[in-house]
């Protein structure tokens, strides 16, 4: 376990992570962190399985950012450095393929007059690190104006993208309300494009409308091409909502926040944006995670405020649930018990702890008790709308039996 800083000796800085995961955390600290090399070497002396470290770095999205830093510090055995460099080269090639697809999609959306923003992925890599291959991401995320979602889907079909069978849209033409996002896979390259019409399934969690985000958009340049992206001032709250809901399953997301919140003034602005949304506790948790997990400098006043809030303490405990178990370094299998517990229990608990307001909880509870898939499969009249919560267990079982 990493040593706690003197002012925080009353609580442990990290859960009892395995030596391999502690090394991965130490590697994440190298990205922009000060004096992280000594911590990395100490963690390396405890590693028992370097193959697990390799898989853990990939699972946490750190190949692009951490491998060059590891090569400079000499923190891994020579026998492990060669495959890491090989995977980094493959990462660069993958980013180049996604960059080509991003260009094709952008041109098609522009020609159709569809307003759009590229979120996370390559655009974020340029915003935060000045390099499209620094982080890259595993897919291409696009936020489009909701009224043009079906048009954007048609464009993806024309570009040889298709919906996976298990994610196919309902055949009922009357059910024309698109979901929050849909995943499209290219027939040949298998590149994944996620098309979003809003940032969160429950708009009450992060109620930013597209028109506002579009008006504030930032243009990032890639090879002479201007890519519309989310304004930098919006990134702390958005990245925190995304990362915490998934329990920081990729440490890359924390590294991104450490970069965007590097200056004290950025913290003040981010807290000013989060508080009116009821998300101040969520951002205080980010401060705790950056301080304890990545050893980043966080204002003492912010850490003190977090210690006094139950929602922050609860989030601090819940996110650790995604990093225990012997197979932390690999994706949870589809339809597995582990994945069900992570998504249906811990992730939902985190969602409610992120925004402990009555208005949000009531809307989130109503959302959790119904399912868009059930509404598509069982078209009940409005007077029987109250039956959907009763139908949900049966719909859930039917969908999994079909898979």
Describe this structure as you would to a colleague:
The model is unreliable at 1-12 and 168-178 (pLDDT under 50). This protein has 18 helices and 7 strands. Strand 4 (181-186) and strand 5 form a beta hairpin. It has helices at 19-30, 37-44, 50-59, 63-73, 78-111, 121-129, 149-158, 210-215, 235-245, 251-260, 264-274, 280-292, 300-307, 310-318, 337-354, 358-368, 372-377, 388-402; strands at residues 116-119, 140-144, 161-162, 181-186, 192-196, 218-222, 225-229. The two termini are 41 Å apart. 53% of the residues lie in helices and 8% in strands. The protein has 403 residues and is of the alpha+beta class. A 5-stranded mixed sheet has the order 1-2-5-4-3. The protein has a two-stranded antiparallel sheet with strand order 6-7.
